[in-house]
Each structure stands twice: as C-alpha cells, then as structure tokens.
Design goal:
Radius of gyration: 14 Å
Mean pLDDT: 89
Structural class: alpha/beta
Low-confidence stretches: none
Number of strands: 5
CATH class: Alpha Beta
CATH architecture: 3-Layer(aba) Sandwich
Order of helices and strands: EHEHEHHEHEH
Helix content: 40-55%
Number of domains: 1
Distance between the termini: 11 Å
Largest sheet: 5 strands, parallel
Number of helices: 6
Shape: globular
Strand content: 15-25%
C-alpha cells in the first residue's frame, strides 16, 4: 500500500491547491489534509498509518507549525515513526527557518505563487522521498 501524504494548512484555498497538485503526482498515495495542526496531531497519534511525509504551513491559528513539529518531536511514539517533516511558508524568514531546523525538519520551502510551481515543488519532493530508504519501510 502506498504511504499517505499529510498536508496541514489553515488556508482552505492553499490546502485545496496543494491537495490537487499532490494528487497529480502521487496518484497512488492517499492524501490526508487538515485545516489545523491540532486535528493533524490527533490523527497522527491515533493512526497506524505511516505517512510518506508531512507538508505543513508555518503560520497557522490554534497551533502554529513550529509548535506542531515540537509536539511530534516531543512524543516518543511519533518521533520513532521518523515521518519526514517539511515546512511551507509565504515568507523566508531566517529566524523561522533556523527554528524549524533546530527541530530536525527535513525541508523548508517558500510557498509557490502558482499551481504550476506547486506541481514542480511536489515533483522535486516526490523524487527525493519516494526513492529515499526509510527505517520503518
């Protein structure tokens, strides 16, 4: 079975664009989207699903992306799942990028401005993460 791609973004338009682009490239992978990190965290804790990766917006209401990543990092069971975690942000704030990498994220991407750029970004992510060996495979 193909691994699930998890997308977390509180902007419904961005989430829909990301989901559509992901479906284009990851046709065999289930796509699970969340409008907030709290719900995504509950899903990750309650499921046996091994996601291919998590793509998460940095600036969100309820729980921000940095806090979400920290919660995963602090939870031993989730940390041991070794889920690749990628950030997406409208800005390339050096402070946020530094904070993200302190939490051992595997990537930080600036949100693309068009659907074509989103597809290209997913293509680049796909190429790496679908070929990368994983300890829980």
């Amino acid at each position: 079975m193909s691994k699930t791609i998890v997308i977390v973004d509180d902007d419904s338009d961005d989430r829909e664009l990301l989901e559509d682009a992901a479906k284009t490239l990851f046709m065999d992978n289930p796509i699970k989207t969340f409008g907030d990190a709290v719900t995504a965290l509950h899903f990750l804790k309650d499921t046996s699903v091994q996601p291919l990766f998590i793509l998460c917006d940095v600036n969100m209401h309820k729980m921000g992306g940095i806090e979400f990543r920290q919660a995963i990092y602090d939870d031993e069971a989730l940390r041991l799942k070794c889920i690749p975690f990628l950030f997406l942000s409208t800005s390339a704030n050096p402070h946020l990028i530094k904070e993200a990498y302190k939490l051992a994220v595997q990537g930080f991407f600036k949100k693309p401005n068009s659907y074509e750029e989103i597809v290209k970004m997913f293509s680049e992510i796909s190429l790496y993460w679908t070929r990368c060996l994983h300890p829980n495979s």
